Amino acid sequence: MTQFGVYSEVGKLRKVLVHRPELSLQRLTPANHDDLLFDDVLWVEHAQKEHDEFVARMRERGVEVYYLRNLMAETLAASPKGKKAIVYRVVSEMTVGVALVDELRAYLMAMEPDNLAQHLIGGLTKGEAKELFATGPLGHVSLIAATESENDFILPPLPNTLFTRDSSSWIYNGVTLNPMYWPARHLEVFNVGLVYHFHPMFREAEFEYWYPPLGDDRRFDLEDFGKASLEGGDVMPIGHKTVLIGMSERSTGQMIEQVARALFAGGGAERVIACHMTRDRAHMHLDTIFTMLDRDAVTIYPKVVNQITAYSIRPGDNEHIFDVTQEKSFLDAVQDALGVKKLRIIATGGDEYQQAREQWDDGNNVVALEPGVVIAYRKNTYTNQSFRQAGIEVIEIDGFELGKGRGGGHCMTCPLLRDGI
Question: Are 348 and 355 in contact (CB under 8 A)?
């Protein structure tokens, strides 16, 4: 039986989910990149080369790498039920209008699996769906069809799919499907949910759904989450039955409590450390200012990490759901949870100005392949030098284009199977 589960941040990485830059990033323009949460447009062909190098370095170390689009295409081919579920989820009266919904659903259902997977991630314009509009006088019955131009999107592009860390989080022996903060990212979770629910490799595996609580029917849905949101860049199962979750720009206390309750009830974890951060685009997630390098070593951006207020959440007594305790400091809480005598702390390298630059360029956002071995962007020279001086092996890749979405190796990977420590 295929195994999935993530039991630490630095244990041997066995399986990982990534997304290679393609159509969705080709949709970025100077006019829309802010709305799509990018700071600039990307040279996509160069971003692909950088990403291919990233994947090659992981495979050289024995990591089994899965591409999201490939898994989606395999799912759509293998599961008519899954195909209908995703098409009916993304195409509704509220997304494409009353008059267009049936025609567009039929059009997408007739697509070949790989083509449909490409457009579920990359978006679909009216011009690309000429066959649909050529089959009948839709412009006379659909206000949407009549008013939108050839270049308007019927399905929106999802360029942040590049950062597979965020839409789902594997925490010990289970997974969360994450209701993300910005509307531009909401549909990403349904694509990864399609795979987890309907791909044969996952259907045959045994694991828990920490959120949403799906029960035995494994229903493909996310309930109305109100003000609650969660993104995987804030979620770190560090081992020893402990999970760090950032209360950041994009993850809320309401969702942290949802996940904590499920973990405690299912025996997945015994302690959740909520990390209350300042809210800023420069450090949108916990992993932009803190990641683990080794069993006893972490990298931090001190200017932000030293301002984190940490709260340990444990199961409460019979009268209370939780027992919440404020910690002396975030790093003290991490050291205690890891059970190490002294936590080795490697700060962002360089002077104050260089630290700010390298944090912005994801110097602290590294992914461990095994204890003491990380992948980092080559451009963060001062920080990488600090890692090496601390005995960490640094595998460097280019990230000049990939980094324009404000994410490094940690953001671009969703571990599916990782050993404990």
Answer: yes
pLDDT of residue 220: 56
Residues sharing a CB contact under 8 Å with residue 255, sequence separation 6 or more, in sequence order: 178, 179, 211, 225, 228, 229, 230
Q: Produce one character per residue of 200-214: b if its CB has 16 or more CB atoms within 10 Å, e if not.
A: ebbeeeebbbbbbeb
pLDDT of residue 362: 92
The bridge status of strand 290-294 relative to strand 235-239 is unpaired
Confidence at residue 37, expressed as pLDDT on a 0 to 100 scale: 85
Phi, psi at 271, each rounded to 5°: -150, 130
Residues 293 and 240 in one domain: yes
- Which residues have CB under 8 Å from 61's CB, separation 6+? 13, 369, 370, 373, 395
Question: What CATH number should be reported for the domain holding residue 131?
Answer: 1.10.3930.10
Locate all alpha helices (DSSP H) within 34-67, ordered by sequence. Answer: 44-60
247: left (phi over 0), alpha (psi -120 to 50) or beta: beta
35 lies in the same domain as 89: no
Same domain, 49 and 111: no
Instruction: Tell me the CA distances in angstroms from 11 to 35, 238, 246, 292, 373, one per residue in order.
Output: 36, 9, 21, 10, 10
Domain span at residue 47?
A: 5-70+159-418
Active site residue 411: yes
Residues in the chain, pLDDT under 50: 216
190 and 308, same domain (yes or no): yes
Residue 289: the pLDDT is: 96
Residue 49: per-residue pLDDT: 97
Helices (H), 287-348: 302-305, 330-338
The three-class DSSP label of residue 88 is helix
SS3 148: coil
Using alpha carbons, list the distances in angstroms from residue 46 to 50, 71, 399. 6, 24, 10
Q: Which of 117, 145, 192, 411 is catalytic?
A: 411
Q: Is 407 within 8 Å of 42 (Cβ atoms)?
A: no
Task: Please tell me the total count of domains within the chain.
Answer: 2
Confidence at residue 223, expressed as pLDDT on a 0 to 100 scale: 54
